Amino acid sequence: MLYRQKKDTYIRNYDGLGYITSTGIFNDRIVNESGTIFLCALSRKPQSLDELIDKILPQFTDVDRDTIKKDAEEFYDTLVQDGFIVKGENEEELNVKDIGFTYTAVQPKTIREDFSPTIQRADSDTQEFLEKHFNGRPHLTTFQIELTSKCNERCVHCYIPHKFKLYNISDELYYNTLEQLSKMGVLSVTLSGGECMCHPKFKEYLRAAKNYDFYVNILSNLTLLDDEIIEIMKDSNVSSVQTSLYSMIPEHHDAITQLKGSFYKTRDNILKLIENDLPLHVSCPTMKGNKDDYGDVLKWCHEHKIRAQTDYIMMAAYNHETENLANRLSVDEAGNVISDVLSGDIDYQTAILSPDFVKRCNEAVFNPERRLCGAGVSSCCMVANGNVYPCPGWQEMVLGNLNETPLQEIWDNSEKINWIRGLKMKDLGHGECCKCDKAAFCAPCMVRNANESPTGDPLEINRHFCAVAQKNKEIVLDWRKAKLKELGK
């Protein structure tokens, strides 16, 4: 009997902690030290159980072969049952069973971000577990590479000033970065822009990223997608493509992108990706130009089994220019979105009506000693000129430049990244957030603070989002009160 890692499954060893993830089943798993040895014996080539045991056995000096074989078979069969690996008599059978992502099986997932109170979210997931595991000794697992700052669209809400969209990454810098990421054991690499497909070597770069067995994500408006790129995506087994669709009304979408005809190009290419079973994620940021349209976008995505999300968060440009914020929803407009979401989310309504909901809201506070931000713990980004920064949007916070300093050295020794890692909730606004009664409805963000602050201070509280949190709280508690009265409770 042969075992093989599925084509859409990725395995990493994080200092003795085994991690396996699958893009086909949207699932992942963490295993202990012994399980890590079993896990890392797998590969994309078929191996018999005995071949796997030959690789495993030398690492267990006090355990006999029969015991290892029994444990390994149970371990691998569990991974087979859970869809991470395949098992068969020969390679032909393995290929038949190695079914990747397909829209014929997937259930769509629509997400509305930052509406529900933080206390209603899951206590922990795998990524949170990994962040806790790396706490005190950060380990880079996710990296975003801006291939080009050039873009064929001029979106009205973009946090990248249009006057700076001028540069392409060089071949030397790109390939050197991939090599460094591979040596650091990075799992996920995101290719972005600008518009990443504006780079003349995008196709070549995409092929190269998969040669390192990275979990490759692409951020693109899809207007430049062609059949050749689709074939490369399929051959390279791209894990995720993310795009933005702002409205199902062409004029509204094009008014936001400021590119005539962009709606039809993006929508039609979304359909092409579906036809080719390429995993897709649609984002529909809500702003003044589409504040009444996001529901139809989510509905359309749901009908096509596309994972989709919307939110009303918008931040200023990274150089502190705030012209784009003219498109941001007002507090009352954001409140209308919150109310709309609440009216259609049965699960959220059930949570709000739970007996202890108000008590939990009142008791929710930010721990003063809690890490302020997850940036620099497991992820960071770079732009086309080689500058490394903590997270998308915070491009003014330059941690170092890859043309001058190796990524490992920046990750370990940058004064700025170590300063960010050391920040606690008590440092934000001189501890004001730790005393706030809206904590259950708020998610503070240093990038939003820094970009909108005239001085770039990430610890200066952004009052717009305080007001939105207050509006959120009022709407939710008023709805609960009215609903309980209606129910006679």
Mean residue pLDDT: 90
Portion in helices: 25-40%
Summed up, the helix count is 18
Q: In terms of per-residue confidence, which ranges show pLDDT below 50 for 5 or more consecutive residues?
A: 110-124
Amino-to-carboxy terminus distance: 61 Å
Shape: globular
Largest sheet: 10 strands, mixed
Estimated share of beta-strand residues:
5-15%
Radius of gyration: 24 Å
The count of DSSP E runs of length 2 or more, i.e. the number of strands, is 16
Q: How do the strands line up in the largest sheet?
A: 7-13-12-11-10-9-8-14-15-16
| Structure class | alpha/beta
How would you sum up this structure, described in words?
This protein is α/β, with parallel strands linked by helices and 489 residues long. 38% of the residues lie in helices and 14% in strands. The strands form three sheets. Strands 7-13-12-11-10-9-8-14-15-16 form a ten-stranded mixed beta sheet, covered by helices on one side. A three-stranded antiparallel beta sheet has the order 5-1-6, sandwiched between helices. α2 packs across α3. The chain is globular and about 65 Å long.
